[in-house]
């Protein structure tokens, strides 16, 4: 039977969506000037600083930051840009490399002590990235194919019977291009960062509660298991943070490549 007289303070309170609500940095500051915005700006400045340090004075034999920067460049070029952009890969590398590194850094802030918040778990940031890619895709498609050619290539691919295209394929393709694609592009990144942060917060809070705040013999077992899960999930989260940066940038390259080369 539950003891209704036990105060709430003596019960474990699981973290909720309140983890993602941040007040302004100081009283009177704009409502949007919060911790995630501050660290988003810091992340941008850090990426710019690292790029400058790595490539401002390149050496024939790369070392240090230049070596790391070249590895990152080659990874994005060979695994993301070239498979989808072909001969245009080098032209789009500044955008794709910057996008990959910044998204990855913003994700990794979720496991950095004292920060411990992945910037992309706030939906506004993935949405801005997705909208940039979306507008660029539409612009490039119309510029390279013409307005009529863009919609024709999108809705009526060669070899598909016209009645089938009109009745089924064209409406679905319009829905995908203008609604589903940009929506899923943003939400995939946001949802993974949101869920990962919530899980890490839950197991960390459970371990702290049962081992430090309210230690008991039975609770210590739960606390140790919670800490072990938090450690394991941190390793998994780092992998997912890298994977989501890769997938987001890969989809951006795919959208740009499709606009430039609709025949593929």
Q: How would you describe this structure to a colleague?
A:
With 264 residues, this protein is mostly helical. It has one domain. Helix 1 crosses helix 3 and helix 6 packs antiparallel against helix 7. The longest helix is centred in the last third of the chain and has 52 residues. The radius of gyration is 23 Å and the shape is globular. The chain starts with 34 loop residues before the first helix and ends with a helix. 26% of the residues are buried.
Task: Give me some keywords for this one.
mainly alpha, 264 residues, 0% strand, 72% helix, disordered N terminus
Unreliable sequence segments: 1-8
Number of helices, where a helix is a run of at least 4 consecutive DSSP H or I residues: 7
How far from one another are the termini?
66 Å
Number of strands: 0
SSE order, one letter for each helix or strand: HHHHHHH
Largest sheet: none
Function: Key component of the proton channel; it plays a direct role in the translocation of protons across the membrane.
Organism: Planotetraspora thailandica
InterPro entries: ATP_synth_F0_asu, ATP_synth_F0_asu_AS, ATP_synth_F0_asu_bact/mt, F0_ATP_A_sf
Keywords: ATP synthesis, Cell membrane, CF(0), Hydrogen ion transport, Ion transport, Membrane, Transmembrane, Transmembrane helix, Transport
